[in-house]
Amino acid sequence: MNENLNILGKSDIFSHLSNLKYIPRWAVLIVDVILCIISYYIAHYFSMNLVHELPDQRILNFVQRNFIVGFSQIIFFWIFHTYSGVLRYSSYVDAAKLFLAVFLNLVTLLIINTLLDLSNGIVIFYTWPLIIYAVIAFFLLFTLRLGVKLIYDFFTQNSGQVTPVMIFGTQSAAIGIATMILSSHEIKYKLVGFIDNDKNAKERRIMGFKVFHLNEETVKNIIVKKAKAIIVTPLKMNTINPKVDLDIFLNNNLAVLTSPPMSIWKNDMPSLKQIKSIQIEDLLERPQIEIATDLIAGQLKGSIILVTGAAGSIGSEIVRQVIQYQPKLVVLLDQAESPMHILQLQLEEMYPDQNFTVFLGDVRNKERMEYMFDMYKPDFIYHAAAYKHVPLMEDNPVESIQVNVQGTKIMADLAVKYKVKRFVMISTDKAVNPTNVMGASKRIAEIYVQSLYHNLLAEGNNTTKFITTRFGNVLGSNGSVIPHFKKQIEKGGPVTVTHPEIIRYFMTIPEACMLVLEAGNMGEGGEIFIFDMGSPVKIVNLARKMIRLAGYIPEVDIKIEFTGLRPGEKLYEELLNNKEITQPTHNPKIMIAAVHQYSFEEVSSQIDELIQYSLHSKNFLTVSLMKKIVPEFLSKNSQYERLDA
Fold first, then answer.
1. pTM, whole model, 2 decimals?
2. Annotated catalytic residue within 97, 149, 388, 430
3. Could you give all domains of the chain from N- to C-terminal order, each with its CATH number?
4. Annotated catalytic, 366?
5. DSSP per-residue codes, 438-471
6. 314-338 pLDDT, tens digit each
């Protein structure tokens, strides 16, 4: 029998059920009135032996009595709006309205009946049929709504349109989410229980639902049979260990969802639309990085700040964070017209009172950059403009030099000329023992700004402090594996990974930018700051988690394919050269790398020669000189490996 019902529920006959329009209110009212008339007929039949015959002049006939009951009942239906709800979304509130409408109608009719009997000796109704009518009418009206709701829920759930869920958490936020699911008119989730990692929680019931203790055995044997998704409360998200707790759900093919924090709930209740799939950023296997903002605020408030590469993922986030510190002016520099236009519209909407300006330009154009410096005279520069994609730069090394090296040189030289207070350069972990053109170009840029600062210091010029920051991959940045994997998963796969053993360091874009601001604040000049990126992550494990987060099973629903290392790519990245050591700072997440010092005269001459090679599109000469400037630069999976021989 149950199998037949399940087959029926999944059939095309009922597949359109959830798309039916609501029954009009007048139709619901007519059905309710018909049920009331039927109820009075039934009540009259069952109460015939309980009433005594009265003279005809003292009692109205049956049809008249039924009409009065029906008419008065319509009045109370109107008072309580019992017909205005959607039947398939009926709740306890609707049941309470029905009870009040029927009960108060009964009381009103009994009072009228009693008053007429005392004053004129006329009785409109027999008492017992009226009482029995009220009981039967409420039962039928309530059963109608309950039946419609159960039938609708059954067919929509069996058609896969409703997801059975459990809530991970038992505090106020969990109860709020549960209340929202149970009372929402949008039938998307069906609550089947709660989960908690408190061992005593399994003895409790919340809102009639059992609380299960979180452990792998319970998840495998019980929870996976009852639920298809887990909603993690905001409080749990802040306290759980993703690698231990969330992986239990993901490894058992349970989708993991979360809702926004209670502080931003509207009307103390989230919307079903606010319940989203957990993001891969939430599964970083380390605590979120936090910084003290007081010193940064004191430095940036009222200053003129220039952000290069402002339309990029890192540059745009630096802009958003810098604006929080109330600068006098933020200058957004980039050559990408469309992304800059989009960012400008976003900032105008989000920060209507902030003074900022958009400046279209290329960091390689010295005359254009000098015009900008002369116009705005910035106090602080965050230099994020760069070419960063390893395979592209391996094929176009001269472009890498012109943007990453020449562009940095032009900006640094102008920073000195216009007495900029601080120049913060955004570098990369790929600059350490580089195996590709992109990483080597960033290392040469590091060498230039550091040697420039020490040369200025030797000349007694300490006006501009040059500070470099290194970090690894940022989750969700333009061109990173995260958006790439997301697109592949949306298409149904396969997800492509270059090598099964490849690992990378990751942090979120806001984290990286926060550390850039703090490093820029604490730097005294000439330092290369490196960030604690936590433990490296295997890219193939990242792909598997993203597939599970999307509700699929790796290698079953979506395949993972290994495509081989790309030109210039290595299995692991480093934040330090083997010869480098670190010094701690007041922030345990930020360290100073003690790197090799270069002579500015020698470096400057070599870089000028390097730029000339790039301007004449001499790829091999360009890369050959890069290897001379950075001896540890050894190409991998690249045509330039022959130069290492």
1. 0.67
2. 430
3. 2-158 (no CATH), 163-278 (3.40.50.720), 294-641 (3.40.50.720)
4. no
5. HHHHHHHHHHHHHHHHHHHHHTT--SSEEEEEE-
6. 999 999 999 988 999 999 999 999 9
